[in-house]
């Protein structure tokens, strides 16, 4: 039986190792989604605008002494929490992007090619982390303008940035999974919004002392509070306690859970 | 010629849960030829394309593409085919050229070859002027042509086209047909699914009609049309009385009197005969409301082949004449 591939007028496939091709596939798709950031600037602008207005609003409304944050300037207390809002808002465009790729046949097209289709997910995660970095950079810049004065040394800075990036990485994977399980376009945005709501049930704007016991237990132990606590302590040169380890355990653990589930869901659509 | 079919499907079954979508399909496509798979929505056309493109696993039967089994040698199958799905998988914020190069690189033909092939295809599909504009600005016809061009970036020997002209205006459809005919002339094997008899007629060497998961007819387009019947002249009357009188006047002629719709259908393949019959109706003094030419449509094919109802054209195509 002859099975020679016809290549008349076309291009034969190059010989490279599977790993080299998988890397090449990932690079091409990372480029696709990174390009989307620049070509659909409204998405990143929206994702930055919300925490920006939040920062300005709370800084100037409550910053005059309306909230007792125990000795630190209110703006210094506020900024770390708003940074996490910036990170969660990145999820919205990741979730809807993944949903569209699944629905509009892009993923199916890749699955009918020799491409490593899961590179789509890699591309989305890298672009999501990059959007988070852009958003965080803009928010840090604004924070300094309105009086944010951290007291961290280099190591503490690196630690805070590390925690925020780990958080962004975890959020990106959760957003991907939400895009995979969404049943409709509106559902995709809705699911992502649940994620963006998480920061509001934390100690982002004020200490938790005055919250009723039941809610307070949740607020103090939900995974996002660990991120805010650790970033705040690191940047303001306060005792970190176990907050950094808690943040790493929470979000490292969540990522370790989400990645295999997402990969499995991705494969399952074959049958 | 046992192993030389580009596509060889036998006894193919596919169930989703309790629903059996394909109930034993046999199809063979000779290398370098085109088969049109004609059928209504839900007949199983897209499922067949999905199985051929390794997206869905068969529940039973054997399927080989370019001599490779879709299950055991799926990667070799993927290296042999180009696929155009019903939903175009284009990146709207990227330009036509960028879409082509990206898909070329994902087809693993190398960056340089991807650029060279993109140039050729932009030229071939008349997309040169729009090459560096975002796809968002393309018309429906241009998007379809780009989608087809993308499926050809790695020069596949077998092309699977799932309803490539659905939703296109007539002019863009003719453009797509010309492009597909060019590919066939170059020696590409093509399997095309369509809901349009006209499309199957125009393009394909062989036509297979699928309905409810079974191939109900298979042959050349001419053979198929012979089974369905040729063009008909359809007469509609203003009054019930006129219809009855006209029917009586042409008694003994080859005509289809539909009492329910109050129409008369006459064979239109013999013009002299047709004029003579029309003359007899005119002499009977009735008032003919309107005339229309009715071509055999997909409805006719199904009504005829499945005998679910009386073979009377339900749909009229062509210009109504008052």
Task: Please describe what this structure looks like.
The complex is a heterodimer of chains A (271) and B (322). Chain A is mostly helical. Chain A has one domain (18-268). In chain A, 72% of the residues lie in helices and 0% in strands. Chain A is built from ten helices and no strands. Chain A has helices at residues 18-39, 41-62, 74-103, 106-111, 119-145, 154-181, 185-197, 213-221, 223-235, 243-268. The longest helix of chain A is centred in the first third of the chain and has 30 residues, at 74-103. The two termini of chain A are 28 Å apart. Chain B has 322 residues and is of the alpha/beta class. Chain B has two domains: 5-226, Rossmann fold, CATH 3.40.50; 230-321, Alpha-Beta Plaits (2-Layer Sandwich). Chain B contains eleven helices and 15 strands. In chain B, strands 6-7-8-3-9-10 form a six-stranded mixed sheet, with helices on both faces. A five-stranded antiparallel sheet of chain B has the order 12-13-11-14-15. In chain B, helix 3 crosses helix 4 (111-124), helix 5 (140-151) runs parallel beside helix 6 (170-185) and helix 8 crosses helix 11 (298-306). The N and C termini of chain B lie far apart (55 Å).
